[in-house]
Design goal:
Elements lengths: L1 E4 L8 E4 L10 E9 L2 H8 L14 E9 L11 E3 L3 E2 L5 H4 L10 E2 L11 E4 L2 H4 L1 E2 L6 H21 L7 E5 L3 H12 L3 E5 L3 H10 L3 E3 L7 H8 L4 E6 L4 H9 L1 E9 L15 H5 L4 E4 L8 H9 L18 H10 L6
Parallel strand pairs: 10-11, 10-13, 11-12, 13-14, 14-15
Antiparallel strand pairs: 1-2, 3-4, 3-8, 4-5, 5-9, 6-7
């Protein structure tokens, strides 16, 4: 099969012929029809993810068709249109049995723990627990666009933060995660403040349902501005970037008893940001919530919102590319400025 593979961190992503994957006894082989490109893929290519071993094929936001089925698989068959969480859980540990598969003790992370979906074929283990059938009306590109951005954000806002209609939602960073949060927040009836230094991203946020947009490059204090426009602070605030400035802004923009959701992945010097615990967590009694991925059973709620016309993942697809262009996209990630205020 053909795959996009790199042999050195930050090195060229080359299209090469590599052996087809073997079908796991409890898994399937998928023909990949579409795969999203995520900043997390860039993290793996950059060498900052400890699970990535060279040579490596990235890609974790996939949709495709089942080509082959292992002897222990019962829930899917060849020809099924499917996707799956990027965190493939074991289905049998205490966390999985308790419904918390995203913190599985024995998780396999597609495109990080093993080779990913920037390829023509992908082996997916533990298929009965992890595969999700796609409705016929949902295209492969739209399913891949759900990826980790829409699914992780859905879990963060719905399952972790319990965002309610009429609450104020502040979104720090309007990339894939942030724009997904705008769509989900609008579908839930929240009042949305979207924050980014990119005016084009803010324009897209407005088109997706943001009530207010703020550009930190034009503000003296972003968090204070959020608290002013929301009449005391956001009920829920998310950091969609994972950098110290946006983590601080998200926490400080909350009202008393607010909920901060960390969706952006903090790496390097941003992994341990200083936190004013007395002023924020203690005095204002805020909650800090982590979220990563989604469990396969929760796809039904997300797909239900899509079927009902409340969400449309196609609206966050800005470009469709071939495998040969992925290296260029990674280089673009490398050059792009972060939100810095």
């Amino acid at each position: 099969m053909r795959a996009a593979i790199f042999d050195a961190y930050r090195g060229p992503l080359e299209i090469r012929s590599v052996p087809d994957p073997d079908c796991p006894p409890d898994g399937v082989i998928l023909k990949i029809e579409a795969c999203g490109v995520c900043r997390s893929d860039h993290h793996g290519w950059s060498g900052v993810d400890p699970d990535v071993r060279l040579p490596h094929v990235p890609g974790h936001e996939f949709a495709g068709v089942v080509l082959a089925v292992g002897p222990d698989v019962r829930a899917v068959k060849a020809g099924d249109r499917v996707t799956a969480p990027f965190i493939l859980a074991c289905g049998d540990c205490p966390d999985c049995r308790a419904g918390e598969a995203t913190v599985c003790n024995h998780q396999h992370v597609v495109g990080f723990s093993g080779w990913g979906a920037f390829a023509e074929r992908l082996a997916v283990p533990r298929a009965d627990f992890n595969l999700v059938r796609l409705p016929d009306e949902l295209g492969f590109a739209e399913a891949a666009a759900m990826g980790c951005r829409l699914t992780t954000t859905f879990r963060g806002l719905v399952d972790r933060a319990d965002l309610k209609p009429g609450e104020c939602l502040a979104i720090h960073g309007c990339g894939g995660v942030g724009l997904s949060a705008v769509m989900i927040g609008a579908a839930l009836g929240a009042q949305i403040v979207a924050i980014d230094i990119n005016e084009q991203a803010l324009g897209m946020a407005r088109s997706l349902g943001a009530n207010v947009t703020l550009n930190p490059s034009r503000l003296a204090d972003t968090a204070l501005a959020v608290r002013e426009v929301t009449g005391g602070g956001a009920h829920v605030s998310i950091d969609g970037l994972g950098i110290t400035a946006t983590i601080h802004n998200s926490v400080r923009s909350l009202r008393k008893l607010g909920r901060h959701v960390q969706i952006g992945q903090p790496l390097g010097r941003h992994a341990s940001p200083p936190m004013p615990l007395l002023e924020t967590v203690y005095a204002r009694q805020i909650s800090i919530l982590g979220t990563r991925g989604i469990a396969a059973p929760r796809f039904s709620a997300l797909l239900g919102m899509i079927a009902g016309g409340r969400l449309d993942p196609a609206r966050i697809i800005t470009k469709r590319i071939g495998l040969s262009i992925t290296y260029t996209i990674f280089r673009t990630f490398q050059r792009r400025r972060h939100l810095s205020h």
